Structure formats: C-alpha cells, structure tokens
Amino acid sequence: MKAVRFHGPGTPLSLEEVPDPSPGPQEVVVRIEACGVCASDLHFIHGELPLPAPAPLTLGHEPSGVIAAVGSEVPFWREGTRVAMFAGRPCLRCRFCAAGLIEECVDPQVMGAHFDGAWAEYVAVPWFTLAELPDGLPFEHGAIACDAVSTPYAALIDRGALRPGERVGLWGIGGLGTHAVQVARLAGASFVAAVDPLEGARARALALGADLALDPADDVPNAIRDATSGRGLDLAADLVGKTSVLRQAMVSMARGGRVVVVGQSLEAADPGPIVALSFLGIGILGHLGYRKQHLEEVLELMAAGRLDVSGSISGIYPLQAANEAVRRLDSKEDAPVRLILSPRA
C-alpha cells in the first residue's frame, strides 16, 4: 500500500510503498477515506517536539474509513462498516491496563506518534478504538471528530467543567479553537471571546457565534473586562501552547476561574506571580486529547445537527500532495481550519 512517510525534521515527506497491514486477533484493518492534518503533525515535522517513535513513521491521527478486515477475536465489528477511530491505544503493561482500566493507562500510545498513523491507504487498530460513523456524516467530518472536535470538546466540557452561563475565552482559533467556539456556545456559555492574530480566524469566530474577537496584540484583558462588565472570564482555553497566551489569559480571569492548557510546546510555563494564583483562586489545568466516550458524544451531536462542522474542511488533498497540505497549514494560507489527506482524492 501507499503511505506518507516522515524521515526526520527538515526532510520532505515521501510517498512510499509499505507492506499492507494485517489484523492481529483483536485488531481490524481500516481502509482510510480521510485523515486530518494537524498542528501537532507540524510540531514533529519541524522538530519542535520529539517524536516518541523512531523515524521513518507514518503520521496522521484523525482517521475515518471502512473496515476492510477483521481479526479472529474481534466482536461485533464487520467488514464494510463505516468508522471513525479513537487515535490511540493502551500500553497493556501498566497496573491500570492490567485491571481493565485501559482509559487510565499511564503510558498511552498515540497513532502517528508512537506507531504508524493514517496518512496511508490502510491502518490496523484495536477493535475497541472504533466508533461507528453515522449514516449521512461524510468521512471528512468523521475524521476531524477524532481530534479537532473531540479534543476541545473534552477540554471545555470535561476538564474545564464548563457550566451554562459562564464566560469563556479561547486563544487560538485554528483547528481546535474553531470548534471550541461552537462547543462553548452549545454548552451554554453566556459570553465567548476569541483571540487570534489572523483576521480570517477572528472573522470565522464571530460568524460561529463568538461575542468578541481580538488580536493578541490588542489590550485583550481590558477588552474582555469591558465586554463582561468588569467580571472577566470563568474559563479560558490556551489552544496554542505559549507562555504569552497563558499570561494574557491569567490577567483576563475572574476570581476562581480555570485556565485549561491544550496547546503544546516546550516553552516554560510562566503564568505570572504565584500570589495571583493564590489570592484569586485561579486554577491551571493541563489537558491532552479526549476519551473514547467524548468521540462517541461528538459524533452523536454531529449526526443530530447540533454541531455543524461543514465549514471546517478547508481542503482535501491526495496523499501525494501531503507536503503541499503541510505547507498550507504551516503558512496559515487562507486561515485553514482542517486540511484532509485522502487516498481516494
């Protein structure tokens, strides 16, 4: 089969022939129809974050497709079923895995980082990572549900414990932040502020229902306080992963607010004076990814028409155009939300 292979930072991606995967007893092989291109893929490509597995590796962790083969011990699932995939697997070595608590695994493995991902024609995954893709949902929508939608959903609803009527600020209105605006509105936020340096991203946030869109170069904390009658934010999400964002969010918070850090980088986290955390009772919460249940819930909301991601697909590229898709996302040309690689394009 064909797969897009990453050989190391500074080296262009290459489309190569690799062996077809075959399912283990508790695995299925999925014929890939769509897989998202994510900013975390760029972190690996540019060497900004260390790749857990040695190169060469197939990247891609937002996959959807059709089951092509089923292992001998797989229950329920059958060939021909349309699926999205929770893009990870447990280590099956830690004490939590041994107790059957696989979602509490202390060393989870991420597709496209710890093992070969889905920028390919086929991928083999454990059967319990599958989520049935509802009829009527395009493969592209099912693909981005597997990170670009489920991660901000989990960050706001679960980790951030967003409650109806709360005031929310979102820094970074790209693939995650665009859907965070929608999730915050869906969950009943009374006010949503979106912060991004790109005019196109700010306009998109307003079109999706944000109440305020700001450039981070603006006086963001005072603008937020002016818009909230001096109260500030109950919940903020750093979807970028930068110290400057964390500091700006901290100054924008109401007493007892929570800042959820979703974006990733190797920058030192410096939110400011510790006394501010103590005096104002502000919590800083780290967050990574989502649980399988979050993916199932997101797909239900999408199928019911409550969460519309039809405007989120900014382009679909064949596998041989992977470098062009990466270039466009990296340059933020036309402020893309999510770009898709598809072996069928």
How is this structure best described in words?
The chain has 345 residues and is α/β, with parallel strands linked by helices. It has 2 domains: 2-148 and 290-342, Medium-chain alcohol dehydrogenases, catalytic domain (Quinone Oxidoreductase, Chain A, domain 1, Alpha-Beta Complex); 161-286, Rossmann fold. It is built from 10 helices and 18 strands. It has helices spanning 39-45, 95-98, 139-159, 175-186, 199-207, 220-227, 243-251, 274-280, 292-303, 322-331; strands spanning 2-6, 14-17, 27-37, 57-58, 63-70, 82-85, 88-89, 109-110, 122-126, 130-132, 167-171, 191-195, 212-214, 233-238, 253-261, 283-286, 313-318, 338-342. Strands 3, 5, 6, 9, 10, 17 and 18 form a 7-stranded mixed sheet that branches. Strand 12 (191-195), helix 5 (199-207) and strand 13 form a beta-alpha-beta unit. Helix 3 crosses helix 4 and helix 3 crosses helix 9 (292-303). The relative contact order is 0.15. The model has no long low-confidence stretch (mean pLDDT 95).
